[in-house]
Amino acid sequence: MSSFQYLLFATTVLSLATLSAGTTTRDECTAKDETIYHADAENVVPPVFIRDEGPDDIRGSARLELLINAQGKICSIQFFERVDREWAKKLGEHIVLYWKFKPATREGKPVAAFFPMNFPPVRPKNR
Q1: pTM above 0.85?
Q2: Which of 14, 74, 75, 123 could serve as 29's disulfide partner, Cβ 3.0–4.6 Å?
């Protein structure tokens, strides 16, 4: 599978997951003129994974990149490796419905950012 085909596959999986979860698309999730940063960019404090409020019934692992907007909402999900389509759909739905984030900040203001992470996430201690 070429890189383009894989990206298309990951985007299709995300589209299916987000549509079935009743969420908005990336274009509706970030402002048209909004700058989207990478979490490791200079002067950017990355998003903070707060909690997973969902059931603990999804098994497996994956490397992901999430786009999290300035309100902490997940706008898109990309998989960095080939995964089963049904599993990816279930995981995508779970992430969109149950994961909570504090948004990235730049100069103290919330910003949209791409954020790489692993599934399952490291669950923070209760705050």
Answers
A1: no
A2: 75
